[in-house]
Task: inverse folding
């Protein structure tokens, strides 16, 4: 994994997502609504912060098949990233972490199946999703 850019550091976990993907943008809005403690920050892969995180970890921001969670200088991908977000939302969402007992190759296979087909299944926006003024402080 080539890491040509310095590792970005943030004081909270950062979710990097595809703001053009209807499903991904809906998930970002879900996190903003249900993350009552304000634990997560969000960055679109289409903006410079998100793109630089992707590039640092060897992911092409123009053709990703994964969203990532950057936490304490380490990156979580695929189903591990999903479980980290769900677990970070608190109850009742945290109960879904039971999926951790499913073998990682199976979880990642299911995740990547959806991720690679997300535009075809859920659609693609013509412009990136824009947060409301109340949400703007949580979006990088």
Result:
């Amino acid at each position: 994994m080539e890491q040509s850019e310095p590792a970005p550091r943030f004081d909270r976990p950062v979710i990097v997502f595809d703001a053009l993907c209807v499903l991904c943008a809906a998930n970002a809005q879900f996190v903003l609504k249900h993350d009552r403690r304000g634990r997560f920050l969000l960055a679109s892969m289409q903006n410079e912060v998100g793109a630089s995180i992707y590039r640092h970890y060897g992911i092409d921001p123009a053709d990703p098949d994964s969203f990532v969670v950057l936490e304490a200088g380490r990156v979580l991908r695929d189903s591990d990233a999903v479980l980290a977000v769900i677990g970070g939302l608190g109850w009742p969402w945290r109960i879904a972490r039971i999926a951790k007992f499913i073998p990682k190759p199976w979880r990642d296979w299911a995740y990547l199946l959806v991720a690679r087909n997300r535009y075809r299944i859920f659609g693609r926006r013509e412009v990136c999703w824009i947060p409301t003024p109340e949400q703007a402080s949580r979006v990088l």
User: Anything to note?
Assistant: The two ends are 25 Å apart (CA to CA). Strands lie at 14-17, 41-44, 68-71, 74-77.
